Amino acid sequence: MITSRSPMRLSSPVWHYVAMGMDAVLITVCALASFRWHFGNNEQAPLLARYSLLVLAAIVMMFGFSRSINRSWRGATLLDMLKPVLTSWFYCLAVIIAWLYLSKTSSDVSRLWFGTWVLSSLGSMCIARVLIYAALRWLRSKGYNFKMILIVGTGPISDAAQKAVLDAPWSGLKVQAVAAPESVAAHVNATDGRPPEEVWLCLPLGDKAGIETSLKALRHSTANIRMVPDWFALKLMNHGVSEMVGLHLLDLSTSPMTGMTHLVKTVQDIVLAALILLLISPLMLLIALAVKLTSPGPVLFKQLRHGWNGESIAVHKFRSMVVHREANIQVTQATRNDARITPLGAFLRRTSLDELPQFFNVLQGRMSIVGPRPHAVQHNEHYKELVPGYMRRHKVKPGITGWAQINGFRGETDTLYKMEQRVTYDLFYIEHISLGFDLKIIFITMFKGFTHRNAH
Length: 456
Description:
This protein is α/β, with parallel strands linked by helices. The protein contains 16 helices and ten strands. The chain has three domains: 13-141, no CATH class; 147-237, 3-Layer(aba) Sandwich (Rossmann fold), CATH 3.40.50.11420; 259-449, no CATH class.
C-alpha cells in the first residue's frame, strides 16, 4: 500500500493547468487544421490573423470556465466530466457569434471553416477526456490513484456509505477504516501508514457530542471533511433557506414561484401560449365544429380543479363524452373502453387534442404550459390523505404537460401506486423548476407527450 502522497499526484493543482494547456492546444490545432483543409496552403496571412482572434477569444473564455471544466471528477461519471465541456463551449460560441453579428463581420468568416473548427475542437476535447477517464480507470484497477476515506460512525448511514464506495470501484475511493468518534484522533495522527484524504462523518445530526468530538480531533487535519446525513436529513437539506425577522429558516414546503423564477415563467407562458394559439387556431376551429356535429351538447367541457395555492379554477377541454350527470356530484375517472366517450372523443383523448383549449387558461394566468396536471377537486380530496406530499403539487400553477406525463404517468390512476409515482415526478419538477427544465419538457412532449397507451 502507498504510504506517502506524491507532490505530483493527479489531484495536484499542476494538473489543472496542464488540462487548460491541453484544451488550448487542441482548439488551436483544430483551427489550423480546418484552415489548411479549407483554404489549402495558399498564403492568406490577413485572413489567418483574423481567424486567430476568434480562436484566441475562445481559448480565453474557456480558461474562464476552467474551474468547472477541469476540477477533480473523482467519484463522478464520464457524463459528469463531459457536461461542463459541452456547456462551456456552447457559451463561448454564443458570445463569438453574437460579437460577429453585432460587429457585422460574420460574412468575413467562412461558415465551413467555423463549423469544422467548432465540431472538431469539441470532439477532440471530449475524446481527450474519455481517454483520460479510461486511463484513470486502468490505473485504479492496478491499485494506483486512490483516495483513502476514514468513515466515522456505525449504523445505517455508515453502512450505506461503505456500500456506495464498494459499488463504485471506478471512483478512485477506498474505505481505509471505520472508526467511532473517540477513535478519530488515533487514525488521523497515526505515523505508521498513509493518513486519510477524506473523512466522512456518518453520524445522526442529533449526535452533537459525536460530531463535536470528531471535529475537535480533525481540527489540525488537512483532509476533506464531509457530512453524510441520513435520508430524512438529506431531503430537508434539499430545500432552500429563508431569512425572516433575523432568523434563518429552512424551507420545508414553500412555493418556488417567487422573484425571477415567477417572472421568467410568466413571460414564457404568455409568449408561448399566444404563439401556439395563433398556430393551432385553425385546428381548434375544425375540432370545435366536429364536436358540435357528432354529438349533442356544448363544444367545451369545464371542470372545477385546484390551481396555484389550492385556488379553485375552471379548466377547459373539448368535450369528449356524451352529456351526462353523475350522482352526488361524483367525478368518475375515464377508463379504457368507457361507454361515455364518443368515437371522436376517443381520438381527441388518445392524441391529447382535447387539452388544446387549456392554452386559454394559460393566457388567463390560471395555468402554465408546464406543471403538474390538475386533478378534479374530488380526486384531490381522496388522494391528499393517501399520498404523502400530495397537496405540495399546488405550490406551482398546474400545467398542460409535465414531467410526470412525459415519463408515462398520465391517464387513469386506477392504483395508488400510479398516483404515488405521478406525485413523485411532480414534486421532482417543483424542486428543480427552471426555464431549461421547462423547455426540455416541452421539447419531449412534441415527440412523445401527445399520445400514450394510458391516454383514454
